[in-house]
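G., the chain you wanted modeled:
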Amino acid sequence: MPAETPAPAILPVFPLTGTLLLPGTLLPLNIFEPRYRHMVADALEDGGHIGMIQPLVPRLDAFGPLLDPTEVERAPELYQVGCAGKIERSARQPDGRYEIVLRGISRFRIVEELEERSGYRRVAAGYTGFERDPTEPQVVIDPGPLLAALRGFGSQHGLEFDFDLLAALPGIAILNGLAVALPFRPEEKQALLEAEGPMEREQLLLTLMGMGLEPLSAETYFAPPTVH
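Predicted structure as tokens:
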């Protein structure tokens, strides 16, 4: 791996609708499909890096129903920007599943898609423009506006949050944690990912919380999988 890149130039990718990984955030995943078991096993032998990315069409991904077993369904077109993470914890279960936790390192842009390996997809990843991502957890952000907006958002939608816990966290952790956790549409999640930096992401998140949540239908949105 070149010294100047925060993650490998060749990256296995895990397409998941509505699932967001950002620098410094943690993402637990339950890996049960055979091709992604191979992906995790290979990653653990080679530095532990995996790229999270969304398919352009919601639910044409690892958890989506294959309504028509065509090449498009099997390998749907992906957004061009994802986030590379490193496996921080892993446990293989007796039935062969993996339970892993990814820590976000840096966003990446797909340069080209490469030949599959053991059924999972791989890309040549570029990190130009994302050089500051690995140090993003050290960015200082005032949590006040985010917490105020979250109170209104929670009240509007009947959602409860532990504000005592949130108040003890750094502002950047609150920002990225809310971007990951709040139930926005896949395209809104992607916009949060692609925001130029933390300040731009904060402004977009405040805007989205101010707009609220529209009713979501099964045809337009699928919530990310619940992982324990």
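The chain has two domains: 10-135, 139-211.

Shout if anything looks off.
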